[in-house]
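WARN no homologs supplied; continuing
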Amino acid sequence: MKLSSLAAALALAAVPLMATTVLAQQGQQDSPPPIVDPQQFADSAASSNTFEIESSELAINTSQNEEVVAFAEQMVTDHTAAGEQMMAAAEEDGITPASEMEELHQTQIEELSALQGEEFDQAYIAAQVAAHRSAVALFESFSTDGQESALKSFAAETLPTLEQHLEHITQMAEE
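OK structure emitted
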């Protein structure tokens, strides 16, 4: 193999690794203390939800894998509905969730946007596993330890759906 071909192959092989650096770092962080404040929960949940929708819209438009596209379509549907329910609960609690995604989520979108083909699919699946693990932990913690509020009820009602999403995407990751 020519040296230039070998260098190109090695560079391409590194792309998914670089793209998932931030994603992997998210999963390696120590568990933060439980969020009990409704405003903090709303801000974190809104960022997570926006990430789920935007990354899944990207998957619908980028992936050629039917299973990835079907999962992404379900995420857009479920997370759009969850976002509407969360906004209603937040309004009932007199809270306005942050409108911008957290830096971590924005970085993940940028990384995913740079990928195509199988590399995209692998990075998208890894991002969904990490995002759903974090979301399940957030919603589980707030539904248990959070201040009594409409948002706490929303967290408890939404948690089973997030757990189903996590189970589904984990199975996809293992295939």
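The longest helix spans residues 117-145.
OK
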